[in-house]
């Protein structure tokens, strides 16, 4: 399936100051946060906030801006430093930080230079910036911290509760256990610092909701319980954590199957590729052909396809048969005959990208093109009603009618993030952010 590459660039998380206009009728979204939208001023190349009606409520005076949090603060960036403003655009925390995270229980992880710290909602230090690394405070009140060259755990009063003796540590999970590493080997400790396992694992993973963790020793994967005892001995070449069905996908002797938490084989390892259950069935490959099995491992649609995708909530799946793509229902009957060079999953708006004669367009669930094939590449519509397309080797955004809302002028783009901005490239050298109106703001890269 075609996807927009998730480009992890610099995290330009926030900093700034601004002036206000009227904020008499403040609207909040379903999360309880102010529903202001970030916009870019096309002349000043700065960002500010608009309300739901498109009126500027906080003027564009920032290098970057994040959405408002539940506490009524938004982290913004100005002159390469982060601070927090209120709904009027007033600085509550002056821009002096290099990073400010999300506030939880009235405090947020922050950094100044190479040192991490914690601040309250007024910007006062709860923990001074003197640690080279800090994690999040867990339910047990402990946070990981780098003390000198080693890692341990401290409380909010900066008492060292678990001595710094590890080469690396992770945050405590909700079950009160944490993964730690010493001399290249991993293990688990509790909130008292007791090692509940030997430091013997090559890989470790968090415990899941049923109290089981995936571990690896000597290139083989198995599972332990919260006492550190094996419930499934390490014997698989690959394994994944247990899903909501209580299944773990495993690779044994080069074939994929599923086991439960007792190690009982639920689906015999005999399939060529990995698979996942979605809407109660999974697409599997057996001897080079794809079909669908239920949770007992029984074929509900016999292997007959060159490729098969997941069934959506309407019971439709894309498949490839004899090098043409089409769509089938849960009974394996074609609802759209195989005729495309490629087709994608249907988006929530009922449209899917499909290729014919070397061009991409969008079809509805009858197989009719509602946006004619004209693009070199067409990506799945996002929930915001926009899709990225490529025309004449340039990226742009269209709406559900196929009209360009942002013209194809970019050499690469990403989806819009939760702040209403998308990171884009104008060419191989120039990059920055655009808002939903297509206004561009170049990125200021630190030298």
Tell me what portion of residues adopts beta-strand conformation.
Answer: over 45%
Shape: flat
Assembly of the depicted chains: single chain
- How many alpha or pi helices? 0
**Spatial order of the strands forming the largest sheet:** 4-5-6-7
Query: Which spans of ≥5 residues are poorly predicted at pLDDT below 50?
Result: 1-24
Structural class, please?
Answer: mainly beta
Distance between the termini: 38 Å
Helix content: under 10%
Describe what this molecule looks like in 3D:
This protein is mainly β. It has a domain at 1-132. The protein is 0% helix and 47% strand. It is built from no helices and 44 strands. Strands 4-5-6-7 form a 4-stranded antiparallel β-sheet, with no helix packed on it. It has a 4-stranded antiparallel β-sheet with strand order 8-9-10-11, with no helix packed on it. It is flat, with a radius of gyration of 26 Å. The two termini are 38 Å apart. The model is unreliable at 1-24 (pLDDT under 50).
Sequence-ordered SSE layout with sheet pairings:
Elements lengths: L36 E4 L6 E4 L5 E7 L1 E2 L8 E5 L2 E5 L5 E7 L1 E2 L6 E6 L2 E6 L4 E7 L11 E5 L2 E5 L5 E7 L1 E2 L8 E5 L2 E5 L13 E2 L7 E6 L2 E6 L4 E7 L1 E2 L8 E5 L2 E5 L5 E7 L10 E5 L2 E5 L5 E7 L1 E2 L8 E5 L2 E5 L5 E7 L1 E2 L8 E5 L2 E5 L5 E7 L1 E2 L8 E5 L2 E5 L5 E7 L1 E2 L8 E4 L5 E4 L5 E3 L5
Antiparallel strand pairs: 1-2, 2-3, 4-5, 5-6, 6-7, 8-9, 9-10, 10-11, 12-13, 13-14, 15-16, 16-17, 18-19, 19-20, 20-21, 22-23, 23-24, 24-25, 26-27, 27-28, 29-30, 30-31, 31-32, 33-34, 34-35, 35-36, 37-38, 38-39, 39-40, 41-42, 42-43, 43-44
